[in-house]
Amino acid sequence: MEVIIRDSAEAGCVLGAKILASVIREKPAAVIGLATGRTPLRLYQELIRLHREDGLDFSQVTTFNLDEYVGLAGTHVQSYRYFMQENLFRHINIDLTRTHVPNGIAIDLHVECRAYEEKIIAAGGIDLQLLGLGRNGHIGFNEPTGSLRSRTWIKILSEQTLRDNSDVFGSMDLMPKHALTMGVGTILDARRCLLLAFGPAKVRAVEHMVEGPLAAICPGSALQLHPRATVILDENSAAGLRYADHYRWVDRNKFAWQRHG
């Protein structure tokens, strides 16, 4: 696991966008896994800037989102399809037929989950999967104690996740209690993973993910198994790391070809 600590979430998101952009420039038809929520918003803004000012081309890119709420149509303002449309897709030259988000209102959710896995395989697999980290250590909507080999499936959201995300719905009572999400096994199949975690609320989850044991109680710890996982933190989220100085040392002493900027 490559751990990069930056001074701020702003700097971390700009670096994350640079990494993602480099993948697209190296492989114009890249398959990119996307995440939603507050954490990647600034990264998406930077990708939009790179598209408008530096000509970053998304015309051949295929995307797969991590998850979607069960019961919300893609036109619902709190759906993740709507989130992606408003915060990224409509601002870049991406072909919407190449963008994929699980269908939260599918008649048969089991069939939808299996079909989503098949679409990822048919696309050639994910080149880079963008991730956030929940306060309870979840990645996607894979909550604590779930299988570390799971595939795309229906998940019951934890109370912690409901509390953390309910503000945009107005209350916990109005928030869906279930979601479709890529499984941890699906995420680990990506050729590269890029996780962002910022702020003091993520300190414990970051500590468990990076330096704790590999354990289902912290699904993010599964990234310890990935051959190419990059974790970008700010000083606040990295505050609990025992080996933070080591990660900074490694970052300073990389070969030029290893540096992200």
Question: What would your notes on this structure say?
Answer:
The chain has 261 residues and is an alpha/beta fold. The protein has helices spanning 9-26, 41-54, 80-87, 109-122, 159-165, 184-188, 203-211, 244-252, and strands at residues 2-6, 31-34, 62-65, 67-69, 99-100, 128-131, 153-156, 178-181, 193-197, 229-234. A 7-stranded parallel β-sheet has the order 1-10-9-6-2-3-5. It starts with a strand and ends in a 9-residue tail after the last helix.
TL;DR of this structure?
The protein has about 260 residues and is an alpha/beta fold. Helices cover about 30% and strands about 15% of the residues.
Q: Give a short account of the largest sheet.
A: 7 strands, parallel
Count helical runs: 8
Using the alpha-carbon principal axes, give the shape: globular
Number of domains: 1
Rg, Å, rounded: 17 Å
Mean pLDDT: 97
User: Helix content range of the residues, please?
Assistant: 25-40%
Distance between the termini: 18 Å
Q: How large a portion of the residues is in β-strands, by DSSP E?
A: 15-25%
CATH architecture: 3-Layer(aba) Sandwich
Order of helices and strands: EHEHEEHEHEEHEHEHEH
Per CATH, the class reads Alpha Beta
Report low-confidence residues grouped into runs of 5 or more: none
Number of DSSP strand runs: 10
Structural class: alpha/beta
CATH topology: Rossmann fold
Strand neighbour order, sheet with most strands = 1-10-9-6-2-3-5
